[in-house]
Each structure stands twice: as C-alpha cells, then as structure tokens.
Design goal:
Strand order of the largest sheet: 3-2-1-4-5-6-7-8
Number of strands: 8
Shape: elongated
Radius of gyration: 22 Å
Length: 279
C-alpha cells in the first residue's frame, strides 16, 4: 500500500474544510478520509476526488499525518482505539504524526490518551477558525519540544490553502481561540449591525448586506496590506465635523471598543474553564 500524506478522521464542518484545503495544496491523491458515518466520508471523497478508509485504523495505516477532527469528548476513545495501530506501525518503522483539532485538549492530555501505543508518537495541536472553509482562515499550531522542523513544515504545507498557519506556544492557545476562533462570530454581529443600520437609513436588505460585507473585507485588506494602525486608517476617513466622526462618536458612546475587548476576554476565560473540565 502506498502511504499517502494526510488522513482526516472526522469529516464534519472543520474536518471537511481542512480536507478541502489539503486536496488543493497537495492534491486529492495524497488525502484519505474516514468518518464514523462512512457515507459522509464517501460523499466528501466523491466531491474532492480523494480516497476513503473504511475505518479509523485503516486511515492511520494509510497516511503519514493523521488529523484528528473529532469532538473533544470523543478524543480519548478514538486515541485508545488507535493505540494498537500506532504500535503496529511503529514496529514496522512507519511512525505517524497525530494532529489534534479538538479545542481545549492540551498536549499532555493527548499524550496520556495514547500511552497504549507503547511509545510516544509525535502529537501536535491545531486550532483553525471557520474562515478556513473559504481559504481565508488563520490557524494556530503548537508542538512539544523536540518535534522535527520538517514535520512542522510539512503540516504547514498541507494546510497552505486554508489561509495562514502560525506557530504559537501552547500557553497562548486559549487566547488565540478567544480572538481568532470566536472572532468570526463577533465580526458577524458587527456585520449584521452595519447592514441593519443601512436598512434603517433606506437601503434594501440585500444591498445593505453586500455593502457591509465589502466594507469589512476591504478595510481588513487595508489594515493588512498597508501595515497601518487601525487608528490611523480611521483618522484618514474622519473629516472635521463630518458624518464619519459623528458615527465614531456614537460607537464610543455605546461602549463599542470596551464591549469588543470584553467579548474576547469572556471567551478566553471560558476557554480556560472548559480546558480544566476536559479531563
């Protein structure tokens, strides 16, 4: 059997999005899918042109990098199931790299769950956000000390079509998740509110939503490409006694910035609480 590059165990929203990105980056011939409901994996494989494994064990055997895209409460059971397969592959000189996409599960938790393998397989943590589904995501990756640089680079290459992949220490994972993982929901609230304001001012709903979305998209592009502080970009739009500064003042009166900061902090605190309850 020819060993492929990446296997994705779990083809839900996030697993499916990452598998799509991998097929674009390394080609569908290098990707294999597995899912608890086989039909779901088969449907996605048919769309992408990649292979399907009938069960998790064969998915692990068929690929070098194994992305574990399952819910946190299912991870311990999946890893226990895979431990004998990992042990067998290790004995044959075919060590695997496990990449967890489960929120809140720390590297130490994952390592404990796979102790039945009889050795310490390489385990990485990955935290993508939902924007990977359109190739505009930001994904954090962390790894224990001693993981080969080549391994990290190959994972980054596999996910290169998902957006940006950034390496961070595990201690920053909860903060990253609060900002980048939860952030799309916060932005969607702002986007909806902008469109609602446009409707109140007389725009048809469809146009108001499109204009609001393009304003957010274009402004973010300026912030990234011009490398200017958002405050500078804001000042460039605000004419003396003009309409923009009147709107900015209304946002300040409503505590907009403080509310946005508190949203990230509330999500960060909740991440920390959930992490303590996982195991």
């Amino acid at each position: 059997m020819t060993v492929k590059t990446a296997a994705f165990i779990g083809t839900g929203n996030m697993g499916g999005a990452l598998a799509r990105a991998a097929c674009r980056a390394i080609g569908p011939g290098e990707v294999v899918l597995a899912n608890r409901t086989l039909q779901k994996a088969e449907d996605l494989a048919r769309e992408l042109g990649c292979a399907v494994a009938p069960d998790n064990a064969q998915a692990v055997e068929s690929a070098r990098y194994v992305f574990l895209c399952v819910k946190p409460q299912m991870m311990a059971g999946v890893l226990a199931e895979l431990a004998p397969v990992l042990r067998r592959c290790h004995a044959a000189g075919e060590d695997k790299v496990l990449i967890s996409v489960a929120a809140g599960l720390r590297l130490a938790d994952l390592a404990r769950s796979v102790q039945g393998a009889g050795y310490d397989p390489a385990i990485l943590r990955l935290m993508p956000n939902t924007c990977v589904s359109v190739g505009q995501g930001v994904t954090a990756m962390c790894a224990p000390a001693g993981v080969d640089e080549k391994v990290l680079a190959e994972v980054e290459s596999t996910l290169s079509c998902s957006g940006v992949v950034t390496r961070i220490p595990e201690s920053q994972m909860d903060a990253f998740s609060a900002l980048a993982g939860c952030g799309p929901a916060f932005v969607c609230l702002f986007l909806e509110a902008l469109a609602d304001g446009g409707v109140m001012a007389g725009l048809p709903r469809k146009q108001a939503m499109e204009y609001a979305a393009r304003v957010v998209l274009g402004t973010c592009a300026m912030a990234l490409e011009r490398d200017k502080h958002p405050g500078v970009l804001k000042d460039e739009v605000c004419s003396p006694a003009g309409s923009t500064i009147a709107g900015v003042a209304a946002l300040e009166r409503g505590g907009f910035r403080a509310a946005a900061m508190e949203a990230v902090l509330a999500a960060w605190r909740r991440n920390a609480e959930l992490g303590k309850k996982r195991y």
